Each structure stands twice: as C-alpha cells, then as structure tokens.
C-alpha cells in the first residue's frame, strides 16, 4: 500500500513540475525558439501549441484576444492530464506485476527458511545456519517466531538459540525502534516473546501511541519484558485509559501471574482514568491496607472516580466511611446515589440504617424501592417496622418479595 501511494504521488509530482515549467515559459513559446528557454525536450508540445495558434485567423487579427492568452495553457493542461493518466496507468500495471513477483519471491524464501529451520531442529545442522544467514532477515525472524509460538519443550529452546545465533535479536531491536508504527506493531510482540529486554524502552515509548491496537501490543510487550515494574508506564500517562484497556491489563496480570504493585502509588496521578483504574485494582486485588487512602476520593471531581471509591469502600466493609457517604449523598447524581444506598445498606451500621429510614420519606419512588431492595430480608423487616406506611409501600414490598423488582 505504501509503495502504491508513493508511485501515485511521484506521478502527480512529475506532472506538476512539467506544468510549472511550461507555465513559467509560456510567453517564450510564442516569441522565441523553445531551445532558448532551456527546456528543449518540450519542443513537440511547443510546436503543437504554436500550430494551433497560427492556424486561427481570429488570433492573428486580434493579438490581444483572451483566447490567445488562455489557449496555450489549456493545451498544456490537456496534454499534462493525458500524461498523468498514462503515468498512472503504467504505475498500476507496474504495481500489479511487481506485487505478483514479490509475493512469489517471498513464498520461495519462506519455503527455504522453513526447510532450513527444520534441518536445524532435527540435526543441529551448521550448514542450515549458514544458509539461513543468506536469506532475508525479516522472513527468517518472522518464521522462527511463528514456529516458536506453536511448539513447546526442547525444540522451543533450540529455536531461541537459533534466533540469537542468527542475530535476529538485533534486527528485531532495530525494527522495534522504528519511526513507523507498523514496524513496532509487528516486532514488539517478537521482542517480548524472545525476551529482548533492550526493547523495553521502545515499548514504553509506544504505549503513548494514539492507536489503541499499537498501544495494546506495547503494553503486552512491556508486561513480558519487566514483570516487576510492569505498570510503571501509567506514571505520567497522558492518554485516556479506556475500560477495555483496563480490563486487558487486569487479565494480563492474572493470566501471567504478575505480582500486582501497590496501586496506591497511582492515586496522585493527574490522569483521572489512571486514578479510577488504580482504585478498581485496589479493590480487585484486595489491598485493604490502602482503604483509608480511598476515602478522600469520594469527593473527587470526576464521577467515575467517585464511583470506584464507593465500590472499593463497600467491598472493604469500611464502616468508617459511612459519615462521608452520607455527607456527599445529597450532592450526587442519581446513579451514584443508588451506589451509596447499596453501600450503606451493605454496611448496615446504626448511622447508615438511621439515614436509610429518613430517606424512605424521599418523594422519589425509585429511591425508596432501591432502599428496600438493597437490604436483606431481616434488615428489610426491621426497616419497615420503624417507618410509617406511605402510599404504595405494600405494593413495592410485595413485588420485591415476588421477584418482580430485581
């Protein structure tokens, strides 16, 4: 695709240069030989334009005619347009032929590489190593990587030795630091699989890429290359850490048995999405020693950060947070009010129950339903015994008991 674009751009650029040369010399065409202008190779175009002009009686009689002024330009534009079409046609034909030749050559190289790799695995053949060194390093590197991912045991270790013996690690390191994201997308996974630790810095740089797919591969590479500092890239991270990426990081930590760091170090980051992620990971990895540090984030400016703080305090059964939850309740949006009610109902302290009793007088029917629904059967009975009946209470309780309101 890049080659096609370059060839098309080159064709248009050549056409533009020819047009520019003709335009700046247009006056000389009509008064002096074309050779005097230094562009003698355009003599046929000059002759064609001049013959058209000389054959027009109107142009000979009216030397100041607008048509006389515009006619050479129109001719030049028509000729250059034709030239551009021809050049594009030739470029397309060339690309088609070149792509077929290149695909056939690549397939032949691939077959040879696979043959010599199998020889090396079976016999430790030094001749195979020598032959592989003669073949394109890109194809050799990719084929070793693909085969390494599909086998286990001693043969996989032999492939790693072959990889380093052929200096494929140097090739991968060079490509991992390429300015082209396509190269980083292709070679960072190879660097991580083959434990090329020098590529860690390139992975860190790539994590800030604007393309999610490239950023995803860089995160995986960074995880594999430095398990004990795998989340350091979140420090001073400038882009939004989407929920999809948060889930991806969590799965990597769990699947690869990576020791989770102390997530409280990310609480002070300026990136709000990183703070929300740190609070969520604190909850999922049960880092209860950070529970006291979570309470101040109930007053964070971003609602998604406050939500994670509420959920974390609920899971950690932080009764100390009840006064803070009650204090912020009146200022919260309905969605977070529901989460606070569920948290207070789960904690069920005397202060929390007193607040829920008072809140049953709330004119919002959905709030009253949520309070009754959030309590277990025993606490629900206690709550209903301590409040006066209101319109629709019996109906709400009946529907909750029947499971019609979930």
Protein architecture, described:
The protein has 406 residues and is an all-alpha fold. The protein folds into 4 domains: 2-101, no CATH class; 136-225, no CATH class; 227-316, no CATH class; 317-406. The protein is built from 22 helices and no strands. The protein has helices at residues 2-24, 26-31, 43-54, 57-61, 66-123, 126-134, 137-150, 154-165, 168-176, 181-193, 200-206, 212-225, 243-255, 272-284, 291-294, 303-315, 322-329, 334-347, 350-359, 365-374, 377-386, 393-402. α5 (66-123) packs antiparallel against α6, α5 (66-123) crosses α7 and α14 packs parallel to α16 (303-315). The chain starts with a helix and ends with a helix.
In short:
71% of the residues lie in helices and 0% in strands. It is mainly α and 406 residues long.
Number of helices: 22
State the share of residues found in helices, binned by percent: over 70%
Number of domains: 4
Unreliable segments of 5+ consecutive residues: 26-39
The SSE order reads: HHHHHHHHHHHHHHHHHHHHHH
Could you say which structural class the secondary elements and strand pairing correspond to? mainly alpha
> How far is the N terminus from the C terminus?
54 Å
Tell me the total number of β-strands: 0
The major sheet is characterized as:
none
Mean pLDDT: 77
Radius of gyration: 36 Å
% residues in beta strands: under 5%
- Identify the overall geometry: flat
């Amino acid at each position: 695709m890049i080659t096609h674009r370059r060839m098309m751009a080159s064709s248009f650029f050549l056409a533009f240069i020819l047009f520019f040369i003709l335009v700046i010399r247009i006056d000389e065409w009509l008064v002096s030989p074309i050779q005097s202008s230094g562009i003698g190779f355009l003599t046929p175009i000059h002759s064609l334009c001049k013959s058209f002009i000389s054959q027009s009686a109107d142009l000979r009689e009216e030397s100041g005619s607008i048509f006389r002024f515009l006619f050479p330009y129109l001719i030049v534009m028509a000729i250059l347009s034709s030239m551009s079409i021809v050049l594009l046609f030739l470029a397309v034909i060339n690309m088609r032929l070149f792509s077929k030749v290149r695909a056939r050559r690549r397939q032949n190289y691939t077959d040879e590489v696979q043959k010599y790799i199998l020889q090396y695995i079976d016999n430790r053949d030094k001749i195979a190593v020598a032959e592989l060194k003669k073949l394109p390093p890109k194809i050799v590197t990719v084929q070793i990587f693909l085969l390494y991912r599909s086998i286990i045991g001693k043969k996989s270790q032999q492939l790693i030795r072959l990889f380093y013996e052929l200096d494929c690690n140097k090739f991968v390191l060079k490509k991992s630091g390429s300015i082209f994201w396509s190269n980083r997308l292709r070679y960072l996974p190879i660097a991580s699989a083959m434990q090329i630790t020098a590529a860690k810095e390139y992975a860190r740089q790539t994590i800030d890429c604007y393309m999610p797919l490239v950023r995803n591969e860089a995160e995986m590479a960074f995880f594999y290359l430095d398990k004990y500092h795998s989340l350091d890239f979140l420090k001073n991270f400038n882009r939004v850490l989407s929920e999809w990426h948060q889930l991806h990081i969590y799965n990597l930590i769990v699947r690869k048995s990576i020791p989770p760091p102390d997530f409280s170090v990310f609480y002070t980051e300026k990136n709000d999405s990183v703070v929300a992620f740190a609070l969520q990971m604190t909850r999922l990895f049960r880092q209860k020693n950070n529970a006291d540090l979570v309470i101040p984030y109930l007053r964070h400016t971003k609602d998604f950060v406050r939500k994670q703080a509420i959920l974390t305090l609920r899971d950690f059964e932080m009764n100390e947070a009840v006064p803070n939850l009650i204090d912020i309740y009146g200022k919260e949006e309905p969605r977070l009010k529901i989460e606070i009610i569920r948290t207070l109902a789960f904690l069920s302290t005397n202060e929390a129950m007193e607040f829920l009793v008072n809140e049953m007088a709330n004119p919002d029917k959905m709030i009253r339903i949520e309070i009754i629904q959030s309590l277990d059967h025993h606490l629900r009975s206690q709550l209903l015994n301590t409040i006066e009946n209101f319109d629709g209470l019996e109906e709400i309780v009946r529907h909750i008991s029947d499971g019609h309101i979930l």
